[in-house]
Amino acid sequence: TPTMEEIIEDPPTSAVMLDHCHFSQVIFNSVEKFYIPGGDISCYYTLTQHFIPRRKDWIGIFRVGWKTTREYYTFMWVTLPIDENSESAKQQEVQFKAYYLPKDDEYYQFCYVDQDGVVRGASIPFQFRPENEEDILVVTTQGEVEEIEQHNKELCKENQQLKDNCISLQKQNSDMQAELQKKQEELETLKSINQKLEQKVRVQKDCWETELIQLKEQNQKMSSENEKMEVRVDQLQAQLSNQEKEMEKLVQGDQDKTEQLEHLKKENGQLCLSLTEQREHQKKLEQTVKEMKQKETTAVKQQQELTACLSLNGYVGGSLKKGGNMEQNFDLSKRLSENKIIYNVLQKEKERMEKENDLLKRENSRLMSYMGLDFDSLSFQAPTSNQGGAGQNAGLAYGNPYSGIQESSAPSLSSKECRGSYLEVERKVPKH
């Protein structure tokens, strides 16, 4: 038995035309030519051998002349047989309630429609009408006639009441019509106001949509600019990091330069001190050269005097005794040889001192040009330290440039030794 939900649910239909339907698969049996209105009717049908019913199959009442299954008047769901192979499963029945049946006298027919909306069988046409009065013979008694008259009186009385009620209802209807007209006028006014409000709402909505689009565009622009700013910030942070690294390198380089400058200042001071010592040493050498020149002049004069003495001794030797003059001549010859040796030594010492003096001048000029100073206008300060050359040159980055010169300039024969040799020769030479 179909449930209420299945009855209320619309059946599956289709727009399939009659030419594509198969009316021979379901056969309707015991269809009357007409059915009396007000009563339930039963529909009997038979399923053919090759037709298989399905759950959503249904039987509808269609007005004759229908084109598609959507034109049904009412319908009932079919009941699936329990055993499809039995003989009773082929004979089926559905019942239509009187409330849902047509009320006119048009011709209708039963149609079996499957769940795909295709018609599988159709009945002969029939009508919903009462029987003809001509064919009915009514036999009544006197009591029945009196009862019918009494019933007619009651019906007349009831009819009059209905007429009175109808008049009252007509009046109420007029009042309702007037009220309805008033409500309709109010409704029209409200509709007009509503249309104006809707127009304003549409205009406002358009404005809001325009503003929303503009805000979205501004939001997109701001997002794009924000992304660009983030990229720029990242670039600036990277540049700042690089600049900080470069600044650290510059600070470290500045510290290195400062340390190097301090070191150079110390070297400069030590070079100035060494230059002062070299200047003083040069002055001493010049003084020594001057003394050597004077000694050379003196030695030349003594040699000349010795030569003259030897000549004089040779002239006087003929008149003197041979034994005494031989010893004196030997002493004079020995002194002359010693003077010659001293002279040669002094001459070599003079040449060496001059070469050393020239070398010191060239080295001093090179040092002054290296330091950017004027050698002639430089005022030297006397050294305040009594340390030796090795101690003073220990802190120089490149060493003392005059250390080799000072070592090589040490005279092979000191001025004191020359002077002692000269005095010894002078004592041995007799004065005239």
Explain what this protein looks like in three dimensions.
The structure is a single chain. The protein is of the alpha+beta class and 432 residues long. The chain contains 6 helices and 9 strands; from the N terminus they run αβββββββββααααα. The strands form 3 sheets. Strands 5-4-7-8 form a 4-stranded antiparallel sheet, with no helix packed on it. Strands 1-3-6 form a 3-stranded antiparallel sheet, with no helix packed on it. α3 packs antiparallel against α6. The longest helix is centred in the middle third of the chain and has 175 residues, at 142-316. The N and C termini lie far apart (183 Å).
Number of separate strands? 9
Shape estimate: rod-shaped
The SS-based structural class is: alpha+beta
Return the average pLDDT rounded to an integer.
79
Estimate percent helicity. Answer: 55-70%
**Helix run count:** 6
Quick one: biggest sheet?
4 strands, antiparallel
* Fraction of residues in β-strands: 5-15%
Gap between N and C termini, in Å?
183 Å
Please name the defining characteristics of this protein.
rod-shaped, 432 residues, disordered N terminus, alpha+beta, three-stranded antiparallel beta sheet, single chain
How would you briefly describe this protein structure?
The chain is α+β, with helices and mostly antiparallel strands and 432 residues long.
Layout: helices, strands, pairs:
Elements: H1 4-8, E1 26-29, E2 34-35, E3 41-47, E4 58-63, E5 72-77, E6 91-96, E7 108-113, E8 119-122, E9 127-128, H2 142-316, H3 322-371, H4 389-392, H5 403-408, H6 415-428
Parallel strand pairs: 2-9
Antiparallel strand pairs: 1-3, 3-6, 4-5, 4-7, 7-8
